[in-house]
Please model this.
Amino acid sequence: METKPTIETVLERLSAMESRITSRLDALETQVSGFGSRLDALEAQVTEGFQKVAAELKLMNRKLEIMTQDIMDMRARVRDVEHRMDDVENEVRAKAS
Model:
């Protein structure tokens, strides 16, 4: 009863499987490292985009503050004009009576 050829065959098959698995793992490792570098580049772009958006929002906030102040100043002037016109109308009515 000779088992040596059978054991050698099994060992050869195991060796062949090991080679295929190693080859596939190497290919997978290459793909994963490629994804990693692509993700790093994407992260950098996203970070840069968020920084630009934050800067633009800050600028828009400043402009909105200025615009709000201008509107409030204008409303104050309009009220002042309305009061002055009321005073003039009252004077005219008083003289007419």
Remarks:
- The chain is about 95% helix and 0% strand.
- The chain has a mean pLDDT of 92.
